[in-house]
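#structure-requests
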Amino acid sequence: MKPTAFVTSDLSPAQLDRLTQRCQVIQGGWGYTGTRLTPEELLPAAVEAEILLIGYESLPGRVIQALPRLRLIGCTRSTPVNVDLAAATARRIPVLHTPGRNTQTAAEFTLGLMLAGAHHIARAHYALRRGRYLGAPASDFSVADHSGDVTWNLDGESPFKDFQGVELAGHCLGIIGLGRIGSRVAQLAQAFDMRVISYSPHTSLSEAEALHVQLVDLDTLLQEADFVSIHANMTSETWNMLEEREFNLMKPSAYLINISRAAIIDQAALIAALQQGRIAGAALDVFWFEPLPANHPLLSLENVTITPHLAGATREVKEHHSRMIVDDVFAWLDGRRPTRVANPEVWDLDQ
């Protein structure tokens, strides 16, 4: 008899079909309706489940303890921060997750933010949409200038002068955290002919050398880097890692990029550094409040590129995490140890 799997995760059609071959699948929640189930809604919906695969629903200990048939949990996120790992481990329930699912996507997004900041792409786009630098209305758009020297407002107010940027090539990228995403960012940046340095206490010299990255201390990185990109995990050691002192070490021409966690940066210190021109700009995908409050001071700053937590949002990520989680569910069903388990100690408890 097939085990029952309750799925709130957004699985790709191909991987969902694979799962139905070996499980009786019941869908609900965010991946199925676009609305997350509350813990109180999740409990009755998953009461018959032996396998629970979630995406963004919260799974507190009280729900884990109250699901009598639950034997396996899967979370299609890089880290299962929405799952009470201690409660799952206490019941000897493995918690699967999908580390690395968004490595390529997040690295590409980082380079996109760097390019947007360095070349003022987002600012220039917004200026045109607001009506700046535009010519008089035209009645016939079929008439083109074939002179071979088409230019855009070089006299007076000029976007060519106002949005003059810098190349990535020849500049130094400082990466804070040389894990999966940070390492991939390093490789992509080198394709742009950038020199890459990193502050990453948990990375060995040999690992850094294999990536052609120089390991340095944090102060050296901040003093030398033209672009500082954060790819560290949120821990007690990294909380408010960048404060006023650290921003004062950075070059006035430097840009800060963050797609990791906002709390790694002291919010007030960053805003002050941007307002006072102590750094050239910032590109941010994560914030201290999400959604970003409509009156947040970042929204009024011209030297900031902001995006609404999109670094991992691609169709490929959905396929990656779907395949990873279904592969590990099948391993578990076959009596094998899954590859990606957030609480591996359950196997040491006579699993």
